[in-house]
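From the methods appendix. Each design record in this collection lists the tokenized structure first, followed by the designed amino acid sequence. Records were kept in a plain field format so they could be parsed without special tools. The example shown here is representative of the layout used throughout.

RECORD:
FOLD TOKENS (102 positions):
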């Protein structure tokens, strides 16, 4: 579903921007509204719920929920990628080859 894919991307964007998410209780996060000055509440109730208009209208995970889920998975994602960063290129010319393609 294209709409959900867009919400996931927007969620990742919120995390990448930084400072948009605060954990206020064990199962409660607030996420800054991307269009106004407010904050939305993302809460765990056996599944994630949000109080933004998009979630209330559709009842499917919104960008705020995806942002919280993505943030919670971030340490795992970073660890996986850190291994790749610390790995030496297999051949010295790898990077040169990559540049030459563009
Ligand atoms: Zn929301």
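DESIGN:
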């Amino acid at each position: 579903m294209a709409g959900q894919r867009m919400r996931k991307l927007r969620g990742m964007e919120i995390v990448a921007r930084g400072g948009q998410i605060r954990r206020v209780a064990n199962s409660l996060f607030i996420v800054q509204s991307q269009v106004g000055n407010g904050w939305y509440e993302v809460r765990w109730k056996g599944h994630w719920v949000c109080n933004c208009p998009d979630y209330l209208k559709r009842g499917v995970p919104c960008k705020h929920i995806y942002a919280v889920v993505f943030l919670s998975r971030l340490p795992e994602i970073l660890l996986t990628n850190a291994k790749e960063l610390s790995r030496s290129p297999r051949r010295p010319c790898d990077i040169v080859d990559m540049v030459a393609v563009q």
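APPENDIX NOTE: The beta strands are 21-25, 28-32, 39-44, 48-50.
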